[in-house]
Design a protein that fits this description.
2 helices; bZIP; three-stranded antiparallel sheet; bZIP_sf; BZIP domain-containing protein
Amino acid sequence: MSTPSVIIPSRVPEVTPLPYNRDSTRAFQADKHGCFLRHNILALNNPSPEETPSEPSYHLPYTMQERAAEDTGSRVKSRSRSFDEISAGRILAEKRKKNATASAKFRDRRKQKEKEILERCSLLEKKVHQLELENPFSKQINQLEFDLNQAKLEKFSAIEKLNLLEDEVIPDIPPDHPE
């Protein structure tokens, strides 16, 4: 299993604040290479030929003690950089862990949904099977109800025919004639 390489941006020189002294007319500026140029602020404001150097002089603004302190600071920075790399690795591992956890939860939810769908399908299949079994019975019941209604109609028609026949065979005797 290969681990992805960590892309670390190229190191950009840090800008450190310069000590401020109200009485000093000197300022230090870093050029594009990180070297400090010493300029006389008064000379920049009022250039005179004797004060303006033809070439800027390069000067390190730190004493040896400051430089030593900076070196230990850079060691701390390199340690912090290694800690950053370690923490970046930990962050990636944490991201992978969270992703794996989320994926596992998703798979569990999907399996649960599939299980519920299968249970629902089996329940519906049972209902369909039950209805298929009941269907012939309901057809028979419907047929019996139809036959019963037909028999009732035939009975009423037979009663009517019988009444008509009785009326034809037995003439109506008027109530005025005593027999």
